[in-house]
Bifunctional adenosylcobalamin biosynthesis protein (Halomonas qinghailakensis), 177 residues
Amino acid sequence: MIVFVSGGARSGKSQVAEQRVLSAAGDANCYYIATATVDDAEMADRVSRHQARREGQWVTLEAPLAIDQAIAQVPDHHAVLLDCLTLWAGQVLFGAEPNEEFSDEQGLALLDRCLRDAQERRLTLVIVSNDLNEELIPDQPVTWRYVEFIQCLHRWLAAQADSVLEVIAGCAVEWKR
């Protein structure tokens, strides 16, 4: 099962997604694919808060870019949370490391491989992403390219997903079942 969870910044989408994964996992381990890179104190604080909330049955796999390799480590029939697509998309376009940048098509193909692998191995894959339509878009071409890419990923992912949730003020609205 593929579940897409989106919402505005700090809307509570990660907590909603974590609960979906915990419900699907039962007593089994839950897997958390972390796409964030810690570059400043604010991000370090956010990562620390997320980690503290996920104590217990969670196994963390850090994958700023290679989400396909992280998903390959998850045992069949398990539940996994990918958090978050927004950060991953930035690293796809702008590179987490020098010379790691991909084209939009390569990024979408990588995400597609992840979904197909999850479906073939009967994983519950919950993917979190920020809804960027809540903000005014700056007039900078590089920012516009990023927004176009993430919205393309969102439309594609919503079409592929079994369930699509939007989180508003901690409340999940299910748009697709």
